[in-house]
Amino acid sequence: MSMRSVGASPRRVGGHGRVTGQQQYVADIHLPDELHVALVTVDCARARIISVDRSAAERVPGVRLVMTADDLPQPVPRFGPQFRDRPVLAVGETKFHGEPVAAVAAETKDAADEAARLVLVEHEELPPVYTIAGALDPAAPLVQDPALRAGDALAESNVLAEHRYEWGDIEAATSDLVVENIYAFPMVTHFAIEPHAFIAAPGEEGLTIWSSIQHPYWLQRIIAGLVGLPLARVRVIAPDPGGAFGGKQHAKFEPLMAFMALRAGRPVRLVLSLEETFQAARRNSAEIRVRTGLRSDGSITFREIHADYLLGPYADISDRVVGKGSYPGNGPYRVPASRIVARAILSHTTPSTAFRGFGAPQVNWAVESNLDEGAKALGLDGLQIRLRNLARRGEKFLPYDTPADGDWQQTVRRAAELVGWDTELPAGHGRGIALGIKLGPTTGLSHATVRFLADGSVLVFAGTSDMGQGSRTIFAQIASEEMGVPLDRITVVSGDTHVVPYDQQTSAARSSVLMGNAIIEACRSLHGQLRDMAAQAYGLDPQEVRVERGVAHLPDGEVPLVEVLQAGLGTLGGELIGNGMARKEAEPDHPLGGTAAFYELNCTAIEATVDDETGEVVLVRHAIVSDVGRALNPLQVRMQDEGAAIMGLGHTLMEHLIYDESGRIRNLGAIDYRIPTAKDLPLEVLSDVVENADGPGPYGAKGMSEGALLCVAPAVAAAVQQATGVVIRDLPLTPQRIWEALDERRRSPSPEVVS
Q1: d(CA 547, CA 142)
Q2: Catalytic site positions
Q3: Which residues make Cβ contacts (< 8 Å) with residue 135, sequence separation at least 6?
Q4: For the chain, is the Cβ count within 10 Å smaller at the N or the C terminus?
């Protein structure tokens, strides 16, 4: 039977509520008797806390609680997804601009804000480290107390961790050309439209947390451990986030809210401003040195990568970002000998965390740019050198990992075709092409429950957070496909740890694969029950009945599953319940703890022109092609790719956080921090997918939605280089930076200028 729902692009589940404003986000939720919370901070990154005087704040009418570190259990509890290094409130010393020293809860937001301004924090400003060079200086202050890192050989340094991956013999490799340079990637903020928001409410049954978090079950575990409650008495309600991109993966201020709610005995509520959100999370910046050996035909003989990623003062999930992002740093190419050294470096800056691409855009910017420089030196173009080295299907291009899981040449050739790679370029135009690869989940666990109700409608219970990627639509399509029920009779329930079964996390493009497979298993559990029900209802041996994709095949014909259900349930009604699970086990001997479930591979090709007078880049054509296995919802797949591509233009052309000498962010907020707008969009965006049904997910799907961001920067930079003759190795490619390079070229006899 041909598929009816999967492979189509039905109207998005929840889409109407998002575009009409009817959807309720955490910031829209109010509880009876709630208190409003405001944070107390000091106006520098690093300061020794001498004293906190709350007396004036406590006299403000409506103030019910002023909490400092002294009011918390001692020692002050710490939390984090990798290391328990972040205190609920600053202890002894602030570590970043915006770190709360105290918090005020009051009857109104105005009262809380007024009282927060009246909390007097006597402090001594201390010199911060907010660059990689500053953090690595032997004279630099330690960001973390070595006592927090007992037994760590690196505890007396600002290097949190070092990751090393190596294979082959670099020293023995023979090359006709060696290309070596350093490339810089900026700090950027996630800039989700919805701000971070948190509510905590105590009750007879325990504690309830409302959060815009991506990983509600992970948060449940963190909170339960901090406040000493069993998991069953900590409920996390996570409405669909209004954008996240990794910035809402892990706990930020939920622990503080939990302690304040328990202390006050009332619900407490905190909604961050955009400026505060900038101070809550960011992407890691990085400096990456790449050294590549090449034969005259463009074949790679070896590569060395030394990557320094700048974290904030606490690990969050960033050390995992560094390790997983750098591990496939060579890209989808065969590299016979390689050495990768990646360091996670602490600093007094906004804490960094996961961000769409999970460390891969940083190293990919450097490696792809380095490859382009090698190609130019050898007289090859960007397409030729990539096809020369690209791994073939089934080839083990990463020695310890999953072989190449797609026919990636199809992806590359299609992107080149879309951008008109072999056609003549107009004067002043340039083209660039780049590849990006990211590992899918290395471990995973998703549970799903599907209820087939007496009227033939379906409830799907799945713990995945739908933050804009359209997961609830995909899950409804899968259930429709398997049960033969129209989409308008299917409801997907998510976002409540007391209601939906466990899902490990919503990240790594895992949901369509892991949760999708769990939903299929739940549906097929129902198929087994319906086979037995059909046999009983129609007087057959169960072996005579075959159930698949919405119908029961009987000896004398087909019967829709809805009819089988109703015949079997009879006048009593009721329902059938199916449970499913998808699990990817850890592999302790693997460098990352597990092989990739799949690869996200994207090829991006760009045509651009540059205004010589201003340095402004205009993208004439932006082509995006991803290897997706199977596009379960083609429109959503294309929109995810196009959204990721436009997001990638941010760190490529304009986005970067700027710090002053006190470690304060100078460009807080939407006015001083530029993100792409309609003015910055490519004149033409062309997106396509390669489908070979060769993924591990439902109907051969692979995870996707991050790939099209990975290689925007090197593709644009290559196009700029061809159009202007200037090579720029520091992102973003701002008009000022390009203009300065062009001006230097005009004054230099060299045909090519490096900036």
Answers
A1: 64
A2: 706
A3: 129, 143, 158, 310, 345, 346, 347
A4: N
Pick among 3.40.50.1010, 3.40.50.450, 3.30.365.10, 3.50.30.30: CATH of 15-22+444-584: 3.30.365.10
- Two tokens, residue 501: 């079964």
% the chain with pLDDT above 90: 93
Locate 424 and state its tokens: 């003549």
CA gyration radius for the chain? 27
CA distance 174 to 376: 20
**Torsion 245-249-253-254 (CA) sign:** positive
Question: Which sequence spans correspond to the domains of the chain?
Answer: 15-22+444-584, 31-126+193-243+247-278, 363-439+598-754
Q: Is the pLDDT of residue 686 over 50?
A: yes
Burial of 592 by CB count in 10 Å (0-12 exposed, 13-18 middle, 19+ buried)?
Answer: buried
**Does residue 318 surpass a pLDDT of 50?**
yes
| Close Cβ partners of 515 (under 8 Å, ≥ 6 residues apart) | 446, 448, 462, 463, 464, 471, 475, 503, 582
3-state percent helix, strand, coil for the chain, nearest multiple of 5: 30, 25, 45
Q: Identify residue 532 by its one-letter amino acid code.
A: D
β-bridge pairing 617-627 and 685-690: parallel
Closest CA to 130 of 42, 41, 45: 45
Question: Fold match between 15-22+444-584 and 31-126+193-243+247-278?
Answer: no
Question: DSSP letter string over 109-161?
Answer: HHHHHHHHHH-EEEEEE-----SHHHHHSTTSPPSS-GGGGTT-TTTTSSEEE
Cα separation, 52 vs 122, whole angstroms: 6
303 backbone dihedrals φ, ψ, rounded to 5°: -155, 135
Between the alpha carbon of residue 751 and those of residues 722, 724, 726, the distances in Å are 12, 10, 9
Q: How far apart are CA 458 and CA 577, in angstroms?
A: 10
Q: How sure is the predictor about 143, in pLDDT bands with cuts at 50, 70 and 90? A: very high
Beta strands in 282-420 (DSSP E): 285-294, 300-310, 338-345
* Per-residue CA distances from 435 to 121, 391, 716 (Å): 50, 12, 12
Binning pLDDT at 50, 70 and 90, where does residue 15 land?
confident
Task: Classify domain 363-439+598-754 at the CATH topology level.
Answer: Aldehyde Oxidoreductase; domain 4 (3.30.365)
The amino acid occupying position 262 is L
Place of tokens 């208190």: 35
Write out pLDDT tens, residues 491-532.
999 999 999 999 998 887 889 999 999 999 999 999 999 999
* Amino acid in the structure at residue 331: G
Identify the CA nearest to 473 among candidates 64, 3, 1, 5: 5
Q: How far apart are CA 646 and CA 211, in angstroms?
A: 27
Half-sphere CA count of 633, side-chain side, radius 13 A: 26
HSE toward the beta carbon, residue 109, CA cutoff 13 A: 6
At residue 367, what is the residue type?
V
- 381's tokens: 């173009």
Please tell me the distance from the alpha carbon of residue 218 to that of residue 506, in angstroms, as a whole number.
10
Of 260, 259, 393, 386, give the one whose Cα is nearest residue 331: 386
**Which residues, 6 or more positions from 164, have their beta carbon under 8 angstroms from its beta carbon?**
339, 340, 341
pLDDT at 517: 97
User: Is 434:652 a contact under the CB 8 Å cutoff?
Assistant: no
> Which of the following CATH numbers is that of domain 31-126+193-243+247-278: 3.40.630.10, 2.60.120.260, 3.90.1170.50, 3.40.190.10?
3.90.1170.50
Tokens read off for 431: 């083209």
CA 110 to chain centre: 34
| Nearest partner of 13 among 361, 462, 363, judged by Cα | 462
Mean per-residue pLDDT over the chain, rounded: 95
